[in-house]
Amino acid sequence: MMMKLSVFRLVLLALMSWGAVHAAEDTPKNAPKDALKVSAEVLNQMASDQFEQREQAYGELKSWAAKHRQQAPEILYQVWKGVDNPEVKARCHALMKQSAIQRKFGKGKGFVGIMMDPVGQVAIRVLQVLPNTPAQKAGLQPGDVIVGIDALDFSELKEKKASFDARDTFQAYVSGKQPDDVVTLHLERGGAKLDKQVTLMKRPASADRGIFGQGQDRAKLEAEAFFKQWFMGMENAPSKEKN
Fold it and tell me: Which residues belong to the signal peptide in this entry (predicted)?
């Protein structure tokens, strides 16, 4: 089941020339010259007879794609074109799609996982902590009063802007973050002040649906349409641009 290394050498030669021309904004200047290459060893291990080895190798490929998000879609396209193993090909295609969509749209909106109610215009009271959410993991409790987030102090912002609303500001700030971003909530609980670090999750589609279940995941449809267009562009591009 193991693939021949020579196949990947051909693929990697193409990737090396592509990476030399397309330097990414998020690649450190002192990064190794082979930073943009997909390891032939990893690809070979993805076709291993051993399930654990295949999973570990795919995990390494995913980590590589996340680290080099600007270049990953095009490089994974080249790998996908160059491999024959059905499982490796399918996984490269799935990761290529995910990488292209994330580069275009980001990972999604951030989400804390609370039901809340405004306390005037300068604070938010936690009414409910949703299960299996960042809020629950961080130890938030019903009755907690959120008076700020990161460098934003709601009282200070209210003094600068009469129409300021803490709840709207909080929602916009969290939605502007991405999953896995870490924010610090400034709370008041039982007269005491405390800070809670919260690692955000992806905002679920259900949080944006109307009361009648409208708004089927429009973002998903947009992402699918984008990837289809991007993929067709890669397929139709002159080979010298791909390589």
Answer: 1-23
Q: pLDDT, tens digit, for every residue of 120-131?
A: 889 999 999 999
- Number of domains making up the chain: 2
Question: Which range among 112-121, 130-139, 184-193 shows the weakest confidence by mean pLDDT?
Answer: 112-121
Residues 66 and 91 grouped into a single domain: yes
Residue range of the domain that includes 83: 5-106+222-242
Same domain, 133 and 195: yes
| pLDDT tens for each residue of 221-238 | 888 999 999 999 999 887
Asked whether residue 216 is assigned to any structural domain, the reply reads no
- Structural domain contains residue 217: no
- Are 102 and 135 part of one and the same domain? no
Residues 10 and 100 both lie in one domain: yes
Largest Cα separation within the chain, whole Å, is 68
pLDDT given for residue 33 in this prediction: 43
Asked if residue 48 is part of any domain, the answer here is: yes
